[in-house]
Amino acid sequence: MTEKVLIIGSGPAGLTAAIYAARAGLEPLMVEGMERGGQLMITTDVENFPGFPDGIMGPDLMDQIRKQAERFGTRIISSDVSRVDFSQRPFKVWVGKDEFVADSIIISTGASARWIGVPGEERLRGYGVSACATCDGFFFRDKELIVVGGGDTAMEEALFLTKFASKLTVVHRRDEFRASPIMAQRVMDHPKIDVAWNSTVDEILGDDLVTGAVLRDTVTDETTELAADGVFVAIGHDPNTKIFLDQLELDDAGYIVVSPGTTLTSVEGVHAAGDVTDKVYRQAITAAGLGCQAALDVQHWLEANEA
Ligand code: NAP
């Protein structure tokens, strides 16, 4: 059986695409991935998604959007896509040994937090090492924290964490922040925040829980230990595009290239939406908007290309 549209990924972009495609009678098949729901599943309060004046928990929001997609007939496979072949139509998508064939594809595989890759980081993840201040900040009331990074994400995470932490050190590998000046200034002016300039984290310390980190001064090469109860890594995100490497045009950072103002990728009939194409806005609501666009683009493309 050839699917009319197969959606890969189940964050706000994929699920919104599914709602629109289903309501257009395209009977979408979604391969939702093992990390179903995407990054909102590891987010606590979402206060900026329109329609929820009192806020909503990330997983609750995703459950509701998923139910809405299912209500209109979206079929969902709870697994990861292992391989794709977009070299000819209909397109082929494999989930393990199972092969699916589709006239059009919507990719919404999102992006994942980047890690620094130093000793202690992986072992202590969930035990003081985190990449999500909104998820885990609450656990660090009156504790001392380290935030790694110098971009807007790091500034946002650091400022958010000041609600809980007693003291916070932002560790940045250069002598100026990459973040927008207003965010950077807020961090530098904050009484609870110190900045360790020209510094990297060489190791995260602790047996069962984080107790500190070894910092290296990139100018003098000297190392020092800094005591801390938590280390928040905020050095950006990587798009989840490994399976599309030899199939679609990607930019230097690995994001799927789409024609400006559309969701069309380098292969006609294959569309992409959400964080997998967007390194600037990266919001649930913008991803949802792009998912809507992808479904409408696919609908028009299928109509124009009907045999
Ligand atoms: P980013 O702008 O790429 O910044 C990543 C930061 O992490 C940089 O300061 C970088 O250092 C540092 N870094 C990267 N790899 C590192 C490593 N291995 N070890 C130590 N440090 C490392 O990423 P982002 O902050 O996630 O922001 C991504 C985009 O989203 C940006 O366009 C940003 O403006 C936007 N954003 C906006 C907002 C907002 O406006 N509210 C909030 C979040 C994100 P270098 O500076 O030396 O490269």
Describe the overall structure.
The structure is a single chain. By secondary structure, this protein is of the alpha/beta class. The chain has two domains: 2-112 and 237-304, 3-Layer(bba) Sandwich (FAD/NAD(P)-binding domain), CATH 3.50.50; 115-233, FAD/NAD(P)-binding domain, CATH 3.50.50. 23% of the residues lie in helices and 27% in strands. The chain is built from six helices and 19 strands. The protein has helices at residues 12-23, 58-71, 133-136, 152-161, 181-189, 284-304, and strands spanning 2-8, 29-31, 45-46, 56-57, 75-77, 83-85, 91-95, 98-107, 111-113, 129-130, 144-148, 167-171, 193-196, 199-205, 212-217, 223-227, 230-233, 237-239, 270-272. The strands form five sheets. Strands 1, 2, 5, 6, 7, 8 and 19 form a seven-stranded mixed β-sheet that branches. The protein is elongated, with a radius of gyration of 21 Å. The chain starts with a strand and ends with a helix. The model has no long low-confidence stretch (mean pLDDT 95). Bound molecules: NADP nicotinamide-adenine-dinucleotide phosphate (NAP). NADP nicotinamide-adenine-dinucleotide phosphate (NAP) is lined by residues 116, 148-154, 156, 173-174, 178, 200, 235-237, 279-280, 282.
